[in-house]
C-alpha cells in the first residue's frame, strides 16, 4: 500500500508540474488567465434547461468548471459545471479558428472557462451550447481526484470540502437545505413576536450550561476570557430589562469530545418568553419543528437513517421517573434515600462510583437505560434538581425541576426550563456548582454575581428553550454525522 501511495504521489506531482508548465506558457504568450478580473455571463445552466424553448438558437454566455472533455479531431465536446448544474458544449475548429481550438484542447479537467454560443440540442436530444468563443478564466493547477465520489475516506471530504463540493455536487443540497431550515426557524419565531438579538461571544464567565469552555486572553485588560458555552444568562438579563420575547441563533463553543453528534463549535438557538413556562415551551417546540419540516421538506413524516419518524402526531410527554419505570420497572417514586438509589443503580449494572445523590442517579439511569429507546418525538420532563441549576423547582416535589428535553431517534435535540427567577435560590445553587468546580469538575457552573444582581431587580416568570440547530438539520437532511451538516468541521491538523 505504501509503495502504491508513493507512486500516486509521484504521478500527482508530475501532473501538477505539467499544469504549471501550461500556465507558464500561457503567461509567456500574454494569456495569463489570472489577470482576468470579470466575466459577463448571461445564463446559468439550469436557466438554459428550464427555458430551452425560448433560448433555442439564441446566443448565451455561460461559465463553469470543466468536468468532462471529449476530443474528436476537429470537433470536441466538453461539460462544464456551475452552481446550478451541468451543461454540455460543442466546440469545433470551424467556429473557434485553428489557434483558439488548439488552445482549447490543452485545457484540463478542473479549469474554469467561459463559453459564448447558441443553444441547441444534439442528435441525442441533449441541450447544449454550440461554442463560438471559449475563454480560459482560471487554470486549475491541481487535478481533481477521479475516484473521489466513491472514496470511503470521509475524513478527506471534510478536510477538503471545496473538493467535495466540486466532485460531489449533490452534497450542496444538504447545505442549501441547512440555509432554508435556519431561515424558517427565524421566520417562525419572528412571526411569533420574538426579537432576534446579539449577545457577547467573549465572556468573562462561562455560564448558562454545564460544559468545559475554551479559554483565551485579552491583552489590554490582562484577563482570561471564555468563548461562550451558552447565551442563556445574557438573554435572561434582557427579560429582566423588559423584553418579553427574545432569541439568539449563533455559534457556541465547548471544549469537549468529538463524535457524530458533537463538534467543538456548533450552532444553537436559545429563546425566552416572559410569563410562560415549560409547558408553553413544549407546545412551541412541537409546532416549530413540525412547521419547519413542512415548509422545507413538504412533509412532517420523515425517514432518518432508515427509521420512519412521525412529526405529525402529538408528541409523547412523560416524566423522567415515569420513563425509567416504563423502560425498566424501577420506580424512583418509591426510592427516597441516596443509599437506596445507589443500591438499585448497582443492581441495574450502572457504574455509580463518585455519584452519591439520588437525583444524579436518576439522571444516569435515564441516560443509560432509556434515552436510546426514545425513537419517536418525546418530551422527557421533570429533571432532578442536581442536574438543573438554572431551573425552577416543582411545587409538588422540590427535588425535581420544571425542565424538559426533546428526544428523537434516541438522541437529544433541545432543552427547556421554567426559568429560575428567585435570586436567593439561584445564588445557593451557584454556590453548590462552585463547590463542584473547586472539587475538580471543569463543567460545573461558575458564580455569576452580575446575573444574581440582575435577578434581584426582578425577572418575571419565564419559559426558556434551547435547540441544537445542527442536530435539527441532521434530522431533516437525513445526515448521519454533524460533520455532514457543517461546511468546515473541526479537524485535527495533519502535521
What does this structure look like?
It is a single chain. By secondary structure, this protein is of the alpha+beta class. The protein folds into two domains: 143 residues, OB fold (Dihydrolipoamide Acetyltransferase, E2P); 254 residues, 2-Layer Sandwich (BirA Bifunctional Protein, domain 2), CATH 3.30.930. Helices cover 36% and strands 26% of the residues. Strands 6-10-11-18-17-16-15-14 form an eight-stranded mixed beta sheet, sandwiched between helices.
User: What's the end-to-end separation, in Å?
Assistant: 21 Å
- Name of the CATH architecture of the largest domain: 2-Layer Sandwich
Alpha-carbon Rg, integer: 29 Å
How many beta strands in the DSSP annotation? 18
- How much beta, percentage-wise? 25-35%
- What kind of assembly state do the chains in view correspond to? single chain
User: What ranges have pLDDT less than 50 throughout 5 or more consecutive residues?
Assistant: 1-7, 148-152
Q: Which outline best applies? A: elongated
**Could you estimate the helical fraction of the residues in percent?**
25-40%
| Average of per-residue pLDDT values | 94
Top-tier CATH class of the largest domain: Alpha Beta
CATH topology of the largest domain: BirA Bifunctional Protein, domain 2
Report the structural category: alpha+beta
Q: Main sheet?
A: 8 strands, mixed
Which strand order spans the largest sheet, edge to edge or round the barrel? 6-10-11-18-17-16-15-14
